[in-house]
Amino acid sequence: MSAPLLAVDGVETFYGKIQALRGVEMEVREGEIVSLIGANGAGKSTLMMTICGAPQARNGRIILEGRDISRMPTHQIMRLGVAQSPEGRRIFPRMTVLENLMMGAAVTDGAHFEDDLARMFTLFPVLERRQGQRGGTLSGGEQQMLAISRALMSRPRLLLLDEPSLGLAPLVVRQIFKVIKELNESQGLTVFLVEQNAFHALRLAHRGYVMVNGVITMTGAGKELLAREEVRAAYLEGGAH
Amino acid sequence: MADTTTAPAPSAVEAAPAPSHTSIVIREAVIAAVIAAALASILLGARTDIAPGGLSLEYRPWNIVIAAVVVFFGKLALGFLGPRSGVDLGGAFSGLAPSGDALSHAGTYVQPALLVLAVVGPFLLLSTYGGSGARQYIELAILILTYIMLGWGLNIVVGLAGLLDLGYVAFYAVGAYSYALMALHFGLSFWVCLPLAGLIAALWGVMLGFPVLRLRGDYLAIVTLAFGEIIRVVLLNWYEFTGGPDGLSRIPRPSFFGIEFSRGDGGFADVFGLAYSPIHRIIFLYFLILSLALLTYFISIRLRRLPIGRAWEALREDEIACRALGINTTTTKLTAFALGAMFGGFAGSFFATKQGFISPESFTFIESAVILAIVVLGGLGSQLGVVIAATLFIGGFEFFREFEQYRMLVFGLSMVFIMVWKPRGLISRREPSVFLKKRKAISGDLVGEGAG
Prior knowledge:
The structure holds two protein chains of two kinds. By secondary structure, chain A is α/β, with parallel strands linked by helices. Helix content of chain A is 36%, strand content 26%. Chain A is globular. Chain A starts with 5 loop residues before the first strand and ends in a 6-residue tail after the last helix. Chain B has two domains: 21-50 and 57-85, no CATH class; 106-446, no CATH class. Helices cover 68% and strands 3% of the residues of chain B. Chain B has helices spanning 10-15, 18-43, 61-81, 89-94, 100-105, 107-160, 169-186, 190-209, 217-237, 239-242, 268-271, 279-305, 307-317, 319-324, 329-355, 365-378, 383-399, 404-421; strands spanning 46-51, 54-59. A two-stranded antiparallel sheet of chain B has the order 1-2. In chain B, strand 1 (46-51) and strand 2 (54-59) form a beta hairpin. Chain B is globular. Classes of the chains: A alpha/beta, B mainly alpha. Chain A binds chain B through residues 52, 54, 73-76, 78-79, 83-84, 86, 90-96, 98-99, 102-104, 106-107, 117, 131-134, 136-137, 150-151, 154, and chain B through 307, 310-311, 313-314, 317-318, 320-329, 430, 432-436, 438, 440-442, 446-447, 451-452.
């Protein structure tokens, strides 16, 4: 089997004296959608942020395409074909939709800007209608679409999505997950998804990981995990909408 | 809306809470008056006088009554006309002056008009008031332009990059002292020193930038405030180098590209066949600061449309998101500090050559505060807002010179009023830096406070 696109090897992350990740092992292979699920405070977002280098891992290695990125500053990691749609979306509220998208393309040389922009407007037609509007005036769902598009503007090979379903209506969640699936199938985009919405996340994913208290406790194919009794009991009680 | 059938008529909705609003306002006014009376009883009510055998205490009960009455009616007026009262004071004011949004809508016409006015202004003044009469007005215009330039320079740091800098005057001082020292010690001309002074100030901007890279908001403000004071205290105490409190005097005046503004042969008037008049130099200084200010304007306008300018604005909005998009926040912040400082340094050089004398007294914290106030009241990031605010404040300062005692009172009051009615500054609209098909801008008023 070929080397994974992203490999996390024994990573430990601390916030001061508090240990948030206790030796995480996981990998994402080219062309995969991988979901990481877990309860509040399990360390899901910390793992994603550690991959991005903020905070940096105290121990362990993070390998991107054979290269150790665990000591790199965030902005350099993001220039290696990684893009992130951060938790809470973090779009630029006073800048227009178009300016937000331009910021997404900041690391590129701009040669494909027009094409990429057209691509985003096809993925999310609402963004085209809202292009002159301030980011802060968009609805939550539109902001999430903007955050994903902004990340895609850098033409990443690996897209990191942190809780894209947070606070959104079920219908919008379904639309966003559909787009992620499409991107993966049509363009071979590799996606690493951190979610509390276990049902949607695992149904979408090729493989999934379950995190409890800073360690991976279970792994397997997405549908397989979804069928497991302990996963259903812990994360899906009444959650399958 | 689903509940339109059940909702009462709008007039009923407004009518119901109206009496309670009135009573709340009156009660608040009474409380404020009581507090004012309590404070005034000590602060205004008692006065010590020199009496035979020592001091005597004199009571002035009327002062307490006046203070209480003024506060009562002031609070009452604020309650009925204030921002939460529903009365549209903005509309009332728009009769007196166009609102900020109207101004920026008309920006396409206003800005060229202002530029033309700035260019022909001194000649209009000359023909109206004559050489000696126009002088004070042109000097006032020079002062205003200096502050406009400083405001535009600080706007890069505060308005675009969102880095609250309370020590901007430090770069102004660095620029002024750089020029003065280079001119006095090495005899370099103004035109050689100007870029050098800008570079030195930019270097100091980077030096300030490095330690504060991790700071934002209040913390950054405190450190920059301290930095401004450090520079001033060093200038004050390094007697051998800076002249300490005596300052530096006999700083060379600028020449018209090598031609001095002197009486007699080879002077400006002689070369151009004019009768000698001291006003020539004043007009030259005016056009010098005008072109320096315009340089600042065009560079910052241009930068805003470039990737670095967008990165500054994105940095202001969300630093974490910036890093997640691969922006190097370190260099982005440092360039903002350096460029802002550079324009401060240019303005400082101009100040030194105009005055001919500088001392640390010209670079106190109040200068930083005034420049920051101009930027904030004008509307963060708005170039035209800076012009309006600088003209109002500096012009107002000079205009009310006779009422010296009340100057700061009026200054403070006007700041409070602007912040109450236009919390985002006089011009709150942010013009998008890029358009795809048609121009469309969104007013700042459409976005609630905090959301944008």
